[in-house]
Amino acid sequence: MKQGPYKRLWHGWLKHYRGALALGFLGMLIGALASAGYAKALQWVIDAFEASERSVIWWGPLLMIALTSSKGLGTWLFQVNSNAALVRTETDLQKAMHKKLVFADLAQIQGESPTALSTRFTADIMLVRQSVIQIFGGVSAVLILVATVAVMLSIDWVITLTLVAVFSLAVYPVNRIGGRLHVVSRETQDDLAKMTGEISEALGSIRMARAYQLEPYLQRSAGVVFDRLLGLKLRLIRLEARLAPIMETLSGAAIAALLVVVAWRLSNGTTTLANFMALMAGFGVISQPARNLGKTFAMAKQGEAALDRIFEILDLQSTIKDPAKPTALTKGKGTLSFQSVGFSYPDGKVALHDISLDVPAGAMVAFVGRSGAGKSTIFNLLPRLFDVSEGRIMLDGIDIRDLTQADLRSQIALVSQESVLLSGSIGQNIGFGREGADAVEIEAAAKAAAAHSFITALPQGYNTPVMAAASTLSGGEKQRISIARAMLRNAPVLLLDEPTSALDAESEAVIKQALSELSKGRTTLVIAHRLATIREADIIVVLDQGRIAETGNHTDLLAKDGIYAELFRLQFSG
């Protein structure tokens, strides 16, 4: 049976901090009893004054000081402990979501932009925290109501039950409004993620947009999202605003009922002025908590919507798993065999059909073809970023699904078009190639990648910090760091995803030399768009609509006068 979002939040997360929450609840209870005590204390004080008890002059003020001090202590206990538990829970949820996304199947997270996903770590988490704080406040309000009503019942049960009956009329309309709030809040959080994505896209493409004078288009596109978000926010405001008049009207009705019943009971002598003043004090105590319950209900519904989005990530189930009894492979030779491999994306799009290919250890294989032919899909299948839908891929005679993901990926090094650097130092970014590598090994890899000279020329050398989103390194420098990382990995299989496509001629020449050094003795698979870079490949595989159309070396394929020859003529028609 599926648990409700708040019940799941309690059992999975908040329960770990039940000690702090118990202290917070104790603070709530102390505050509620102190608040309820005001009505009884006022009754005692007025009765004492009417009886001309002189001692009330000293014990009356002391009693009020004791009640206010107790309420202050209870409030402090509640705020410190409940907020501490929530902050820790918030961090736990963020860590769990991050871990889930980092290890999730690539296909599961490609449908939503990274920027939109990041809003679940910020806006959604913040809304959950606010809603739970509001719920805790609602629990405190309920305790105050129960304790105060109990005191009021001891003073005059007829009048008290009249007030309770009046306030119970709020249950139905508040519940209906809450249901609508949940739906609108979910739509608002979804659109907030879209808005964040729009802003990120606009800023990320600002250079191109200005070059093509696309600023008005970006404004219109983002404006549609902004306006929809505005509409949803206004709906939330209107729905929440409906709660206030309901509660205020009922408060007025309760006061009217109180005055009528008290006047009637005073006239027939069944109550006293002290009782009346005490009941008025009690009503003053419960009126604000009663009003807050409406706000608590509204906020709780919004929190449910945010929790739904958070649990969507936490419920992701990876289909790419390690085998129960994996085959060990510490250092492979790099022999590859694609046996009738087929692959379809989750949406049903077929990317590869019946790919069969044997690659000897140490060979260089180039994959060419028009855009969408399936080249990148093969590169994603080999390290099991996706799993084959049909057939199998063998590494040194072992089905790659029989290896642990860690063992498999330790056999593979990658250099792609985009030189991906993570926040840290240059030395750390090279060191990511192999865990535990020392400074000497990192420097040796940098030298082999022709990166040592420019790194040592930097003010902090290998300790120079790198910001992933704002690096001052050139494209060629970044690529040499990527190659150094692959050098350090020293894996038998090397994947080159057109690593020189975005470089100038001078940088390309340096990178080619480094790649030539890196490829020695390794099984190298290359995605090539510029055919001049793969003339020396041992095997050239021409893909067309997910199938192998041609295989051979450069000379053989030109002689066949097929797709490869056509692509070659297009590139070298001059």
Helices, strands, pairings?
Elements: H1 5-12, H2 18-50, H3 56-103, H4 106-109, H5 114-118, H6 123-155, H7 157-167, H8 171-204, H9 206-211, H10 215-267, H11 273-314, E1 336-344, E2 350-359, E3 364-369, H12 375-381, E4 390-395, E5 398-399, H13 405-410, E6 412-415, E7 424-425, H14 426-431, H15 439-448, H16 452-457, E8 465-466, H17 475-489, E9 493-497, H18 505-519, E10 523-527, E11 539-544, E12 547-552, H19 554-560, H20 563-571
Parallel strand pairs: 3-10, 3-11, 6-9, 9-10
Antiparallel strand pairs: 1-2, 1-4, 4-5, 7-8, 11-12
Helix pairs in contact: 2-3, 2-6, 2-11, 3-6, 6-7, 6-11, 7-10, 8-10, 8-11, 10-11, 15-17, 17-18
Structural write-up:
There is one protein chain. This protein has 574 residues and is of the alpha/beta class. The chain has two domains: 309 residues, ABC transporter type 1, transmembrane domain (ABC transporter transmembrane region fold, Up-down Bundle); 236 residues, 3-Layer(aba) Sandwich (Rossmann fold). Helices cover 62% and strands 11% of the residues. A hairpin with a 5-residue loop joins β1 and β2. It starts with a helix and ends with a helix. 34% of the residues are buried.
Discrete helix count: 20
CATH architecture of the largest domain: Up-down Bundle
Oligomer: single chain
CATH class category of the largest domain: Mainly Alpha
Strand content: 5-15%
Low-confidence stretches: none
Per the CATH scheme, the topology name of the largest domain is ABC transporter transmembrane region fold
Tell me the span between the first and last alpha carbons: 69 Å
Give the C-alpha Rg: 35 Å
Helix content: 55-70%
Overall mean confidence score, pLDDT: 80
Name the overall outline. Answer: elongated
Annotation, overall tally of beta strands? 12
Query: How are the strands of the biggest sheet laid out side by side?
Result: 6-9-10-3-11-12
